[in-house]
Records
---
Amino acid sequence: MKEQENEAGQAKSRFKKLFEDCKAALKVLSSTPRVLKLIWESNPRFTALAVSLSFITATLPIINLWIGKLLLEQISRSIANPNLSFSFSASFFSSPAATAIVPLLAGLAVSELVQAILSPALQYVESRLSAELNRTINEKILRKANSFIDIGFFESSKFHDELQKAQNEAAHRPMEILHAFVGIMNSGFQFLISGITFLLLQPLICLAVTSVSIANMYLDFKNRRTFWDLCSWKIPEVRKMAYYKSLLTDKRAVTEVRMFGLGDFVLQKFLNIFKQFQSEQQDLQKKHWLRASVLGGLSALVDFTAYAFLALRTVSGSLTLGSFYFYSGVLGQLQSRLSSLIWFTSSLYEGNLFINDLFRFLEMEATMQAPDPIWALKAPKPIKQGIEFRNVGFKYPDSETDVLSNLNFTLLPGQSVALVGENGAGKTTIVKLLGRLYDPSDGEILVDGINLKELDIDSWRDEMAVIFQNYCHYQMTARENIGIGQINFIDDELRIEDAAKRSGALAVIEKLPKKYDTVLGSYFGQDGDQSDLSEGQWQKLALARAFMRAPGATLSGNGSAQVLVLDEPTASLDVQSEHEIYIRFQELTRDKTTLLISHRFSTVKMANLILYLENGKIAEQGTHEELMNLNGAYAKLYNMQADKYK
């Protein structure tokens, strides 16, 4: 009794598991309409053509089978009846046999010709649609990434995992889903016709073929779900493999990797992850192969039984030779369409599993919202009261550590303020908060008494000219490298030349093979049309971008930023270039509210106000002379640096 209860409980558990699996599969497949809508939006005309051509080509095999049946029966009658026999002569086309056979041959020829014409046409339409869809999806991904006004997402590993998943599937999954959807419709239509036809002849065989196919479908669903789980879990490992590959191939890493002899070490790290990933895939493939082999053997047994049944019926005289041909073909179509139906449905299921990663990415909501354009305020121009950090505190997302705490200071109009402190003190974080790349966790930033969150973000950033410590090396022309600093003036030659001169980049550009039209970097361009730069030369270009927004006196007032932010502006410059920047410092910052971060105290001491940061708080503040008289941490660091030059 107890054993029977246990067996009943296990059966109930298996049924419940099967029910839950089916429910989960239907939930996954429910995304199909959304994918089809996306495909339609990419190009309605090609989508309609692809569906129509697929449907037409799918109906031709059944038509060919029926024509073949009629043709075979007519030939059999002609052979069996001497009165219907014929010979190739002038009177052939007037014979009864020709009257019956020629139209069938013509119909078969037309059907084959249509299929021969439509197949390459369908391939062309699908290739065009695939290209349009690929562009549409990549545009959506990039627009979504570009829509985040803060940079919190981009400093999160979870965001990059989601981005990787979305990009992995963007190129091909939607077209796979379209193929699968059209294939299901076509295969379903053909299966319905074949199934009804064979059902009338022998219901048990039709039921057996269908049952084995449904078991195959369930197995395929299970296998594809496991594969998707494996791929989803392994996204971080995939990014690690890409990173280790870049260490062995990227020019910025290869020098150090060679000098430290890290090549084999990095290669082994790549191979360890790859082997683990490959091993788990092989285990999955082995399990699927074993299950598929059992079902394949059962399917072969059902096929043999069906063909034996047809052969015996034909030999006994119950079926004509034409009917045997037709029913054999229908059975083949039944099996083929069922296999196609299984494959397309499984493909649709797998495609939806992966494409949902894309939709999840597109549905991500920014942690920081821009103010509604209807009530957002334009940035004050000119700034009259200054920029105030009031009780500002900050923690990076997913962190409990305070980077800044209870920070209070004011940047007055036209004033230069220097931030000094050890690495990790929060200096660059202040710059990110000022540019509203993040919002404070506590407190507020005020511009002329207005909370920064209430300002139109684009109008505020237009008032800032920034050079970051980790500036970009744009693989573009020298002209573009400078001009993108103020994109609205990228064609303004005078402004570009002014920025190049004031940053020290002009001397670099004059030595380039095509001057301002030289492509910088090593990614693009042809020999003689490009030139790579040293780190110091790249920094001069980065400085020039900042000065595009903060032009000289003759150009100021025309799209000129009010706030100049320099984060380690001379870190990679040689002594002479650094000295030239120093002696022009007052000119460069004239009429600009300037925030300067530097470890070079010879620059820092020129600022109107110096803030010494320690553990995210202002430990000391004042002019250079006041801080030296205070004889605190600032004075100690200044004297340590000065002693190096004695």
---
Amino acid sequence: MLAKTFCAAVVGLEATTITIEVNMTRGVMYNLSGMADTAVRESYSRITAALPNVGYRIPLASLTINLSPADIRKEGSSYDLPIAIGMLAANANIPTDHLKEYMMVGELGLDGRLKPIRAALPIAILARKEHFKGLIVPTDNAREAAVVNNLEVYGMDDITQVIALLSGQAHPDPVVVDTRREFYAQQYNFDLDYADVRGQENVKRALEVAAAGGHNVIMIGPPGSGKSMMAKRLPSILPPLSLAESLETTQVHSVAGKLGRDTSLISQRPFRAPHHTISQVGLCGGTLNAQPGEVSLAHNGVLFLDELTEFSKQTLEVLRQPLEDRKITIARAKFTVEYPCSFMFVASMNPCPCGYYGDPTHTCVCTPGQIQRYMGKVSGPLLDRIDIQCEISALSFDDISKAAPGEPSAAIRERVIRARGIQEERFKGVRGIHCNAQMTERMIHEYAEPDEKSLQLLRLGMERLKLSARAYNRILKVARTIADLDQSERVQSHHIAEAIGYRNLDRGDWAERGI
């Protein structure tokens, strides 16, 4: 007897419908076809051990299972449930009338329980697109999949519940998630706030400008000056995620298997801070299954690399393409996957191996050669992609003990949202451009062209600070953001002056300092 069930294969963020055809005839042969990996091929052993434990036994027979279309690679254990249901239907243990109405995924334990799988959200989006009546998933994935409206999502604990549903013996209620209520309820629930940061007003201003324009930023200063503390609070002043951004971000985390059981939609911008021992694959994605890396998990959020020079130079260099293109392509012998990675890049580092170069309160013990090698780990092309570069000084005892509490994140965020609103209106007719950091050269000349007075100031600043020619556009982008924070239609001289101050760590300036 022939039976058909439906599930999905996920490549990147895209899911494709997979038809599982199970044919059972007389004999003792077993054959699985359709470009299946080891985990899929092992499903037969799990299924034949699990079914007797829940009261079903598949007789010895010639069993042929085909996963169609055969030219798409099938990976993982999510095919266990549809294959098991197909085998039961082919053996006439359950009726086949309702099989075509449901898409189903789930890993099967030897006791018949359903275990969670990855990428439930992209699969749910596909099920609605293909007009399936419902989607059957493990209970742990139910809330994640129920984000998709106009689709009945059933979270099941074990295969017996699935059999009861398909046989018409049970009529469970589908899982319902009030997406908008849960999404907006968590948007501004931050554990960290800039009110905790005393002093360092110039650095907080730089981070405000970076948040307002989506600019990348690097902070250089001695240990204990507050670099990490301020970076970790950056999400609290960023504009809230839109529903579209949240859905795309949640899809990435769903494919990576990073969503918790109680998570439906990611409502706050991600903040990823990988350790400096991370590999190139861990940072940018890969492995045999082409899983998303940290740059994609930081999509629509912040990627923070603390102690930048402790990362291997080869690992840092792979950031060039993601920073420029805001997407990353992972190529393998038989397939290519593309993930989005539009993030704010934030880095911090010490000025030298001991950390106290230029600190008036400590003596630096590093030789010029050591400092040069240390700083040389950050290449010119990577530094070129960082718009805002600022030095941080260590706080004195009086600064720490007597300084008033800092401005709360909510007040800063209000100014940032207002500036981003101006930019959204400015670029509303341009696809893929949402903030000043993404401006093309033509847009820079159109929206950030300085007047004669500002141009003279820019020329003077570049000559005195020995800034490179590549810093020109970066300064204008930052100046445009500063003007937006001031709600100024034109870029003025004081906007240019502040933007130049954020480029005082240009590569040419490092060379001048003997670094």
